[in-house]
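User: We ran a pulldown and think these components assemble together. Before we commit to crystallization trials, I'd like a predicted model of the whole complex to look at. Sequences follow.
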Amino acid sequence: MKNVILLTVDALRKDDLGCYGDRSGLTPFIDSLQNKCIRFTKVQSIGPYTQASFPGILTSSYYLEYGRQKKLLPKRILISEVLKKSGIVTAGFHSNPYLSDYFGWNRGWDIFYDSMDADVNPEIPYIKGDEINNKVDEWLSSYIKEGKYKPFFLWVHYMDIHEPYTPERKYINTVDSSISISQDEMFNLFKNVVLKRDVSNRKTVRLLKKLYDSHVREADDYIKEFFGILEELNLLKNSVIIITSDHGDEFNEHGGLSHDGKMYSELIDIPLLIYDYDRVKAEVCDTLVSNVDISPTIIYLFGLEPVKDFEGCSLPPSEDYPKKGCFGEAIGKIGNKEKETDKPVYFYRENNLKVIYRESGNIWEMYNLKEDPKELNNIIDASSMAESMKKKLKPRIRRWIKG
Amino acid sequence: MKKRCAELVEKSKGIVREAFEKFKPSEIAITWTGGKDSTTNLWIIRQVCLEDNIELPQVITIDEGDAFPEITDFLIRTSKKWNIDLKWLINFDVLKCCQSHLGNTVKVKDLNERNQAELKRIGFEEDSFTFEAESYAGNHLMKTVALNQFIEENNIKALFMALRRDEQAARKHDEYFTKKEGGYLMPDHTRISSILHFTERDIWNNIKLYNIPYCPLYEIGYRSLGARTTSNPMAVGVPAWEQDLEHTLERAGRRQDKEKAMDRLRRLGYM
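Assistant: Here's a predicted model for the assembly, 674 residues in total across the polymer chains.
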């Protein structure tokens, strides 16, 4: 049985990856893995920010399933809990406060490092990928040394792309060496532009995207380094590695910045790759899938019985994967502060059609993603499919669910 | 054990001597919290100064307004014993605005210009904050700002600090000399971690071997001392050096869950 490793990158847009069509060479290492990967081309996150998305990834459940809670309820079953009970060693390493001990994500892990105890500075308010890698390396090395080797599940999450966008010079140079900007200036952009969601200056928004891209290039290096660690410890051959992100990031595609409560592609389209050393050639899967399918997939890879409470389905074997639409929900907050009065926003996608319902203002939208990938032309009043799409989302809208 | 301690101390002395080659004593400051690490560090630096006939650099301690009386007392006693003119760094402006009372609200508009500018710099945009040790704004003003201001006003080029590699995973690859690049309101300086290679066990072995003074809180079970309201003993009644240092977390007695997570979220641009 192989180990399973889940590698998640916070706020990584799918369209920044070379293997998903980007031409600027931001992810040379990830792209180089393709011959041993299944690449999923249509993957939806169930939510546009960490709190709304990670319940899908690690608990295969939807964000508002148990109402609006800040902490992860014990009712939700973490993949780590299931695996640990089955005798698999579980370890998680990350630096995202929303996934910390305090918010209840520490359950079921033999090793859980959330870095909340480490000192960080305002310009880089998380532990960087290389330090996460050091921590993982240290654990893996000691784990192997112990000798009583059991298969493990390892989750590693990188924060390096997340704002405040303050990349190192060497990464800025890989994107655009003509950019001349100091750390202070970048941090000021974060405070004065990103936090305020000020998109009035197009040039500034373009500059922010370039700084973001520089971080993408940086994260690719950490993933490379991580694979190097596995190789050195002779673990690459016997591990399946799932690479994905929790959500994307917006650069004024729909009038905003960062990742607020919106359901457009720049936020909910995510990359998903499954790397297996023994794969002989690149494979592409165009089936519409969701990140609630990740935990069931991990269960399948370990050869365990499916978990009843999980809402997703295992991706392999592909012939058994049911044809289904994708659903997601979040609080529709706009701006960096969520207010008690903010109301939910939902989406449902089937094939190339996506319907979005924003409870605040009772607003419906529908897009044909094939003809209008940028989601600029709302066809809710024009499409003959609108009513049937609405009908499919309505039973999912919490306030209309009876009981 | 004796041999290992001697070697560790010799190594630290080498770092300290290297620092004195790079900087004049008047350009250096020694940070001292009264904790076991910074006391050990100060003991080593002081030895080098005595041996090499170098003037002891300025010793500083930050008063964040929530100190254990036992630590304050220890600092005063040990300063006298070692003949040190300890400088207390206090952000009086913040204390004035909260009447020196923990839990009181500080209105940002009541703060002086520098403190207001500092809050702006770190992206704190609320109108007020609660004065407590782990509050984002309060912590920054009482600790970082007080230190930065001291560095700036005294033309300090280097700081002796008492970080240890085994303390946090993130420190594993730290260097003895790290240059902190300055910026707006933040002076350039070098941080010298002269006891980086000590483990928690080494610190206690060394303290016992050389009779270095330590704060009595360690005798009753504290492993790591922070602010009074956020530190707890790890094993009540069990002296720190008798606890299972190798298999338990040194900082587990420090409150870290809620405020730390909130602080990080704020820094990432949420809340």
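Residues 102 and 131 of chain B are 5 Å apart (CA to CA). That may be worth checking against your pulldown data before setting up trials.

User: Thanks, that helps.
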